[in-house]
Design brief:
mainly beta; Neuraminidase; 4-stranded antiparallel sheet; 26 strands; globular
Length: about 375
């Protein structure tokens, strides 16, 4: 059987993940920064210690669930990366899981497959969904209706067995944001003619949104592999980013800014690049999903930022009480549920967390539970 270069890379990467090797990593960046000592922007450190207040298992025995989109009827759609299935989760109290489609065009290999999903802000009227998935030749964003065929609206996003990005979300401005990875190729993240290693901002037709800084789809650049984005009540955009082998990041995303990869990992203290708000050792993080939820607690408690981490097998929580004030991160659910892929705010303001213990990266570092993969429902507060 002939093995393509892409499949060979995927096989090497899979073996590297199991053996703990670094065969799939890129050259080291020119600067490896240190963990920022205090949060950025230059606000005060909040005293609150954010914690998980409750945890329930809603759904069991999924296979590498990757993203969630909630619908107006209270149900949710979940993508599965490797099976390429879209699964409907019924509203409470049943939370029954039912397959509604398999996206045949998607091609599962390595870290690729069926990834992000987002519902149109006008879903009640147009029944339109948006998907991010890997094909045999690229990553792409497609418009889709249940029962129909995906209609690609952005193609040509670089593909690899690793670093495919994949998160989709509508921002408070009504435009669709997509995160892309550098596809394991050094330099693509700094190339403004290339869609790899970027955060993209587009209309529902896949066109550059008005106000984009480079007259293209690109909103920010210099990213290695962003898989989590969310907005706080002030309208600020946050993102989680995988580092190479030293620092993973939580960043504040600002229009047109350069986040440094591959020249900087962590904080480089170089005015050309945006330093992260927080940086974590990769063994404690590798955070994929990101959500910002109202904090349970006294009136005016603010919000909690929730980063769902794979290798770190934890949630990192940061209290955002308002203004430029934020707490230091607090680890929760440490090694209780294994690898955590996504965090999404549900209509009831709780947060759904997806586990990914069947994603081929568990190795000896986590335990596959008979009920995996699962959807957890958590509440957070201070």
């Amino acid at each position: 059987m002939r093995m393509t270069a892409l499949r060979l890379v995927t096989l090497v990467c899979a073996l590297a993940g199991v053996l703990g090797a670094t065969a799939c990593t890129q050259e080291k960046p020119n600067v490896i920064g240190s963990q920022p000592p205090v949060p950025r922007p230059n606000g005060s450190v909040a005293a609150g210690r954010p914690t998980v207040k409750s945890t329930d298992v809603l759904v069991k025995q999924l296979s590498v669930p990757w993203a969630v989109a909630f619908l107006p009827d209270g149900s949710a759609l979940v993508t599965e990366r490797d099976t390429r299935r879209v699964v409907r989760i019924a509203p409470a109290p049943s939370y029954a899981a039912t397959e509604v489609a398999v996206i045949e065009e998607a091609d599962s290999h390595g870290e690729g497959g069926l990834l992000g999903i987002a519902a149109s802000p006008k879903y009640a009227q147009d029944q339109t969904l948006f998907l991010y998935y890997t094909t045999a030749t690229d990553n792409r964003v497609a418009r889709w209706k249940i029962g129909g065929t995906p209609e690609p609206i952005v193609t040509g996003i670089p593909i690899s067995g690793i670093h495919n990005g994949g998160r989709l979300a509508f921002g408070p401005d009504g435009f669709l944001y997509a995160t892309t990875g550098d596809a394991g190729t050094k330099g693509q993240a700094q190339d403004l003619s290339n869609l790899g290693g970027k955060i993209l901002r587009m209309t529902p037709d896949g066109k550059p949104a008005p106000g984009n800084p480079f007259n293209s789809l690109i909103w920010t650049y210099g990213h290695r592999n962003v898989q989590g984005i969310a907005w706080d009540a002030q309208g600020r955009m946050w993102a989680t980013e995988f580092g190479q082998d030293t620092w993973d990041e939580i960043n504040l995303i600002e229009k047109g800014k350069n986040y440094g990869w591959p020249r900087v990992e962590g904080a480089g203290n170089d005015p050309q690049y945006q330093d992260p708000v927080f940086a974590f050792h990769t063994s404690e993080a590798s955070c994929s999903g990101l959500a910002i939820a109202p904090a349970a607690g006294p009136a005016g408690a603010g919000e909690v930022l929730i980063a769902a981490c794979l290798r770190g097998q934890r949630l990192w929580l940061v209290h955002l009480p308002g203004g430029d004030t934020m707490s230091q991160p607090n680890a929760q659910l440490l090694q209780q549920y294994g690898r955590l892929r996504a965090a999404v705010v549900a209509p009831d303001k709780s947060v759904w967390i997806l586990t990914n213990n069947h994603d081929g990266r568990c190795g000896g570092g986590c335990t596959i539970n008979p009920d995996d993969d699962r959807i957890l429902r958590v509440t957070v507060g201070v």
